[in-house]
Amino acid sequence: MNLPTIAHPVEALILAKLSPSVIERARQVRIMAFDVDGVLTDGKLWYGENGELMKCFNSLDGHGLRLMSESGITVALITGREGPILARRAAELGIAIVHQGIRDKSQAISALAQEHGCSLSEVGYMGDDIIDLSALQRVGFAASVPNAPAYISQVAHWTSSKPGGSGAVRECCDVILAAQGRLSVFFTQSAKLMSGVIQ
Amino acid sequence: MNLPTIAHPVEALILAKLSPSVIERARQVRIMAFDVDGVLTDGKLWYGENGELMKCFNSLDGHGLRLMSESGITVALITGREGPILARRAAELGIAIVHQGIRDKSQAISALAQEHGCSLSEVGYMGDDIIDLSALQRVGFAASVPNAPAYISQVAHWTSSKPGGSGAVRECCDVILAAQGRLSVFFTQSAKLMSGVIQ
Amino acid sequence: MNLPTIAHPVEALILAKLSPSVIERARQVRIMAFDVDGVLTDGKLWYGENGELMKCFNSLDGHGLRLMSESGITVALITGREGPILARRAAELGIAIVHQGIRDKSQAISALAQEHGCSLSEVGYMGDDIIDLSALQRVGFAASVPNAPAYISQVAHWTSSKPGGSGAVRECCDVILAAQGRLSVFFTQSAKLMSGVIQ
Amino acid sequence: MNLPTIAHPVEALILAKLSPSVIERARQVRIMAFDVDGVLTDGKLWYGENGELMKCFNSLDGHGLRLMSESGITVALITGREGPILARRAAELGIAIVHQGIRDKSQAISALAQEHGCSLSEVGYMGDDIIDLSALQRVGFAASVPNAPAYISQVAHWTSSKPGGSGAVRECCDVILAAQGRLSVFFTQSAKLMSGVIQ
């Protein structure tokens, strides 16, 4: 990977809040996997009398996941629950790798790394509960959320400031993209687009 | 526009929190455009298995948008997403200008200004993400929300204290109406109405 | 009304946070009217493509309104919006007075007072927006919520600490019941019930 | 019960925030009963025109209740309201004891203790309102939530830091499991699982 040595101001703003160790870990991520409930959502489960009615995602997270994919980073969703709603949202975001009903997340992460020819140090995972522990303990970049129990988030290398479902995933995407010098290009594109329109 | 030189106490309360530069920018707004997800909503996307089920708006925002229209300021909604729900809410609020599926918001803002014979300094825009950047950088009054990534909201001239979907749009409307001396009339009307009923 | 002169500890806990003037106003309330959106709810409006899908009420508020009714205080709901959902919830709570589609809330409050042979000093109203102003300025006990614009809540005699839809109405009920010495009876009943079961 | 005398670090983290008296009470719990609205949910009631549409539970709470059951502690849900939604969620979590439409919670708690051959000091209850008072005053471990009125939560032996519906029940489960030395086993299992996969 060709990484810029001097950060763009937007990336510097993000990196300034991170330790060198976290930046180095985020810099190596080639596959980023996310738990769903409590991470991509606020953990709330909406039930009607026939079971789960809906899930609540976040538009900031959606944009972040798209920026990751456009930057060539593989995005995966790995969840213990099952249902058609997540597949619908993932399809809209163009996320092809969606593993549902997974009991052993560590094994799922290993398989993912192998399929993509990555070492575990090039894999990131963001989770919030005991079922996520083994995966968090194996990956190069382990991320968590402030709504997780403290005994989970303390295992992570990095914890978002926004809670799950309110932009935590976007924050995680921004950290990885900034560490890899891949965020500023979207600002430059935006500026070019603007110039194109003005001139 | 005839603007009062001495502010009504209600307007003074709002203006006291603003810099002279922000007041001057808000004073010139003749068209105010808003992004939808994250601004008019809290950015949450409610999905069932067939896609987006609903959107969550705010009654304070609705009243603010009505006060803007009644004051002669043109209100527009510009969003990258598409769907029938927004049209339904906009119709209820009497907002005629609703542009959905917009990729280039800067271009949409320019077209809007031209159609209404306004300069860009007379246009305001409130947004929360990278897709909003080019529009925010062009308009006379650029507004954002505290739930936006910091690298977006720092581009804005003014950021609401309430998050999107919890009254951020109403705060923005109040700022514009107060800067233009157009908010107090609704208090006077309320007082007159009350007198009429009492006497 | 026979009011106790020495407060029960539970009532003292509530009254300790109130000024003598607020206690005196709350003590006189015989009819308490509430706005709906932003007061009995958090102001969020859930829209599908055919309009409002649902409203979100709070179980604490529901219990508070029941305690008010059981204590002989008349409860009314007065809202500018219209729809079948509010009627459904009000029926469940046994609230007979529900006025929807009301533009002039001050007039609605006056009519209510007259029908029940009360003076306006014996009426309370809780609201959060400009449409509520004239009513708030007329009643003996004007209450508001922290999510209201500051220029509205500053008109009120008392503002709840919890926001609308999260227990603001219950807080208001507790204030009135405590000021009237009518809250502790529910604790005594609970204690009696417990004794009955134990012995 | 065989209880470890030296706490696992994860359990120590939780126990460090508790008084010896709370730890002792939690240590004795063999049946833990929970109120639903405001405890297992955030107290919000979602109404359509035909009544309650859905309830919003939390994935962290669900995992906590499963850990309790797997640890041999009996879990019960006791609520004053009635409806099919709670039964659906309870079935998914494998909770067999669900008492709905209960007016006298104290009596329900006594019956529960008797059926399971427990003394009341071995029963816990988590509630948030006046209807829960008599039960809270009887059980060995009385728990409440920060969203309860202060005059309720002050009756409890312990109050969660997270509000109802946002992980309060999980916090309660963690306290009981940590006090009984039954939480760390899930970490050990997770570690073993990980080792098994790696080697």
Give a summary of the structure in a few sentences.
The structure is a homotetramer of 199-residue chains. Chain A is an alpha/beta fold.
Task: Report on this structure.
4 copies of one chain form a homotetramer. Chain A is an alpha/beta fold. Chain A has a single domain, classed as HAD superfamily/HAD-like (Rossmann fold, 3-Layer(aba) Sandwich), CATH 3.40.50. Helices cover 43% and strands 18% of the residues of chain A. The first copy, chain A, contains 9 helices and 8 strands. In chain A, helix 2 packs across helix 8. Chain A is globular and about 55 Å long. Chains in contact: A-B, A-D, B-C, C-D. Chains A and B meet through helix 1, strand 3, helix 3, helix 4 and helix 8 of A and strand 2, helix 5 and helix 6 of B. Strand 3 of chain C pairs antiparallel with strand 2 of chain D, so a sheet runs across the interface.
